[in-house]
Amino acid sequence: MRQAATQELYSYWNHLRGARLSPEREEIDPSAIRHILADTMILEVDDARLFPVRISGTRLNALFLDEQKGRSFVDLFAPDDKAAAQQMISAVIDGVRPVVAGLTAEPDDARAIHLELLLLPLRHHGKTHARVLGMLTPTALPAWFGLRRVNCLGLAAMRFVGDEQAAMLPMFARREGGEELRPGDLARRPKARRHSFFLIPGGRED
């Protein structure tokens, strides 16, 4: 995590959960994270796993120049990245593991913006597959931000928080043996073995 806001939200979430795998949705106190609320969002875990946005921070709204509450978070991604985004979020809730990802977004007539995405599992009324606390933070604010609508989000890389030895992996990585590794596979493997994954050519370019 490179962004200060991302680090703050993760620290808050980590403090709330204590010895548990994840905290309850009702434990989130907006006043405790008021300085970073613009960057935060909450996703609902639905049966179709399109992950509709329950609470949309103003940062996400500004990217698309529209209120995103009620819209599918997966559908905000580029067509080629939707399946990977869906699997990434599913890995967060199925493996109960936080993930940080690198995203890109750009309008038609301006340079791309780079963003850091943090996804954290939440319980809701004791149910584990219920909510995801998220944060979307730009690495820098371009002059066009809030004035031009981006077309979609691009997924560049991801890793599970706590895998200090792992580099940011492309969404579909391969091991030396050629085995394709998807986000769900990464979530289920022991932490001690995460550093055995390798990057291969052909991923999205910044």
What are the main properties of this structure?
single chain, 206 residues, alpha+beta, 6-stranded antiparallel sheet, 4 helices, disordered C terminus
Tell me what the structure shows.
This protein is of the alpha+beta class and about 210 residues long. The protein contains 4 helices and 8 strands; from the N terminus they run αββααββββββα. A 6-stranded antiparallel sheet has the order 2-1-5-4-3-6, sandwiched between helices. The protein has a two-stranded antiparallel ribbon with strand order 7-8. The two termini are about 15 Å apart.
Concise structural overview:
20% of the residues lie in helices and 25% in strands. With 206 residues, the chain is an alpha+beta fold.
How large is the radius of gyration? 16 Å
* Unreliable segments of 5+ consecutive residues: 171-178, 190-206
* E-strand count: 8
Helix content: 10-25%
Q: What is the mean pLDDT?
A: 83
Overall spatial form: globular
